[in-house]
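Kindly inspect this today.
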Amino acid sequence: TEAIRAIAEVRQYGVEKYGDPENWRGVAPERYINAAYRHLLAMVDDPQSIDAESGLPHYAHLACNAAFLCTLYAKELHSCKFCGKQSLKRVCDDCKATVTRGLAAAESDGI
């Protein structure tokens, strides 16, 4: 239960900071990996250390980052149907932006 409580505290802090309880789902997994490393390294130096920004223990942030990664990676990875890049979506963000720009240009040209 301590892990669940630690994650809940970090989630509450995140909701207060970002305003949207679901915004974490749109963040690239690499950002959570980087954050997990940062909090792990702080814990290596001092297992009871506190994150300066949130005031919460680094171990709580590490647990929350791990939970986010478990959820994000539990989804099936897809190959983007345009470029083949691995993505959590069937069309990666880069290709989606390119297609959207192309459609907008075609509309403005009357096509």
Q: What stands out?
A: The radius of gyration is 19 Å. The longest strand covers residues 78-79. The chain is about 60% helix and 5% strand.
